[in-house]
Task: inverse folding
């Protein structure tokens, strides 16, 4: 079996092993593939692995040996799935590959907003703390997340992961999603009612400043 990865660099710049693919057959990985090289590189491939390189109807029609397409991402709109299905070519994606990474990044940004770590690190190196008249030093108010309420719009895999981290920080979570799963609610996690209904009473959570995060499901 001939396996070709058309744009492996964005997922694996060198810190992940391709051994699993290599054990399955003849394996070739390209860091990137320009549009005019796609057909040439997969013309005789059995399995094609892509991230963002488009596989259109015309491209797939020119490569009749392709029997499987794997997308190294959650979204699969880079593949003409209707044409692939008409030819009996299965197309798979990876729905959960970025759940932990994205939710972690949300809090990396949120904590930067709360503490301005980058700014303070730079100014401390410039000698601002050493020159301070006080034993402590800060240029911005330091915000604590504990006790605040986070609003999450879209409570799918990523939204739920963000919510779990928020609760670990001592936050309350107010979630909105078209498809509610009441089993996810707890003392600290509640669904907001539909937009046209009234919002929860002020006693639903302690009176605390809000912290709104917009997340796609």
Result:
């Amino acid at each position: 079996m001939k396996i070709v990865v058309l744009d492996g660099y964005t997922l694996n710049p060198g810190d992940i092993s391709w051994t699993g693919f290599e054990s399955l057959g003849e394996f070739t990985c390209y860091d990137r593939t320009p549009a005019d090289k796609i057909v040439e590189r997969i013309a005789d491939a059995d399995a094609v692995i892509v991230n963002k390189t488009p596989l259109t109807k015309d491209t797939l029609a020119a490569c009749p040996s392709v029997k499987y397409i794997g997308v190294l991402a959650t979204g699969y709109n880079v593949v003409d799935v209707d044409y692939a299905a008409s030819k009996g070519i299965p197309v798979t994606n990876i729905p959960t590959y970025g759940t932990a990474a994205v939710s972690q990044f949300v809090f990396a940004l949120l904590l930067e907003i709360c503490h301005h770590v980058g700014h303070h690190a730079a100014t401390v190196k410039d000698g601002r703390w050493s020159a301070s008249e006080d034993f402590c030093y800060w240029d911005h108010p330091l915000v604590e997340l504990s006790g605040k309420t986070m609003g999450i719009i879209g409570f799918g895999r990523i939204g739920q992961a963000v919510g779990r981290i928020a609760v670990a920080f001592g936050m309350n979570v107010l979630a909105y999603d078209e498809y509610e799963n009441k089993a996810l609610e707890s003392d600290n996690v509640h669904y907001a009612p539909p937009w046209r209904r009234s919002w929860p009473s002020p006693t639903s959570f302690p009176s605390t400043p809000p912290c709104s995060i917009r997340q796609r499901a």
User: Anything to note?
Assistant: Strands lie at 2-5, 26-29, 47-50, 68-71, 91-92, 149-153, 172-176, 189-191, 210-214. The first helix runs from residue 19 to 22. Residues 51 and 72 are 5 Å apart (CA to CA).
